[in-house]
Every structure is written in structure tokens, then in C-alpha cells.
Amino acid sequence: MIADLHDSWKIHLQSEFEKPYFKALMQFVTSEYDTTQCFPPSQLIFNAFEKCHFDDLKIVVIGQDPYHNSNQANGLCFSVNEGVTHPPSLINIFKEIASDLGTAYPENGNLERWAKQGVFLLNATLTVRAHNPGSHQNRGWETFTDAVIRTISNEKEGVIFLLWGGFAKKKIKLIDEEKHHILTSGHPSPLSANRGYWFGNKHFSETNNILKKKNLKTIAW
Fold first, then answer.
1. Which one of 4, 56, 65, 146 is the catalytic residue?
2. Which of 44, 182, 190, 221 is most exposed, with the fewest beta carbons within 10 Å of its own?
């Protein structure tokens, strides 16, 4: 599985791979995939790292768990495969993009196009048992992904972190606020969005404005 991690990440994360918790996590994940149906497909567990290389990373979006229904999860948080019905949170993300930027609602729910522009789409837990949300939490993934966030904070500068919802906001403690930009809002899930905590956050235009000021290429959301 680690072989699927792009080399640009391996040099920064090698010490994590050698820790006992990570070896135990890999044993657990291998066993789960061998004995039950899990998502995303095994070759896409580290897809966020493959599609957004460490050196190209400009923005971090933090999700919680992969989608747990068939054909949805593709290793990028909030993303689904092209042609798959958009889940409620993704619908609200796309509605905010359309409203914020004055563009059409995006038809393709596969956010690989974001990743290739430097948007790192990281779930805190990278795997899940089919139809069993949260089933792979507290097995070591959170320790690993916290280390990833901390590594980005320590070894890069000027990254824009988009923290949506209470779970993502807890990751602020891992980020050097003096070096990076942090934008927070409610979660795009219907429960939060319908209470007024998501729509109108303008994170997509604000992110591009920050990139412009740094003379960096903006994101085609």
C-alpha cells in the first residue's frame, strides 16, 4: 500500500512508516480488505497523495471518513467518481462554488481536477468497511494523518487550510498559524448548511485571492 504513495511524500513521511502504530494499522487494513468489502479500492487508499504531490501542494481540505457506499469513495475527501450521484455535502460545496464565483454548478463530482492543481484532499481516516461508517476510526489512521498535517505545517509555508466543521477545526492545533492561512466555516453537510453555517463563506474566491496576492496560479474550482 505504501508503494502507492508518491515519492515526493515518502521522503517526508518515512519515519511514520517505521513506527509500531503504523505497522499495526497496515496489518489491520490488509486484513480488513482481505476479509470484508472496504472502500476506497485498495489501490486508491493513498490517492490524495498520488494526485497532489508534496511540492505542488497549495491548499489542504480536511474531511473525516471515506464514503461507505458502493462506487463512491476514490481516496479524495468529498470526491466521488464521475457519473456517481453527488452526496449532500458535495452538492452544497458545488452550490457555494456556483454562488461564490458566479459559475455553473459543476457536473463532475470527481475532485481529481482540484488535486492536480495543488489541492490536497485529505480524509482523517483513509479507509472504511462497506456500509459501516466510522468502522476504521481509532485504528491509527488519525495518528498518521495528524502527522501529515503537522509535516505540511512544518515543512511548507503559506499553505491555505480550509477547515470545514468542528472536526476539521480541531486540526488547528497542528498548524502554525504564523506561517499559513486558515479559513474556517461550518460543515457543508445539510445539517450545518441549512442552519446558515456553510453558505456564503466564500472560501473559494477568498482562496484564489490569497493565491493571486502570492503570484500563484488560482484554482479552477
1. 65
2. 190
Tell me what pLDDT residue 75 has: 97
In angstroms, rounded to a whole number, what is the distance separating the alpha carbons of residues 153 and 180? 7
CB atoms within 10 A of CB 12: 16
146 assigned to active site: no
Measured CA to CA in angstroms, residue 56 lies from 32, 127, 180, 181, 189 at distances of 32, 24, 15, 16, 29
Helix (H) or strand (E) holding 74: none
Provide the percentage of residues in the chain whose pLDDT is more than 70: 98
Specify the DSSP class assigned to residue 118.
T
Q: Say if CB 125 and CB 146 are below 8 A apart.
A: no
> How many other β-carbons are positioned within 10 Å of the β-carbon of residue 53?
16
β-pairing verdict for 128-129 and 38-39: antiparallel
For residues 41 and 47, is the Cβ–Cβ distance under 8 A? no
Q: What is the DSSP letter of 39?
A: E
> Residue 128: its pLDDT value, please?
98
Asked if residues 129 and 68 have their Cβ atoms less than 8 Å apart, the reply is: yes
For residue 105, pLDDT over 70 is answered with: yes
- pLDDT band of residue 195 (cuts 50, 70, 90) is confident
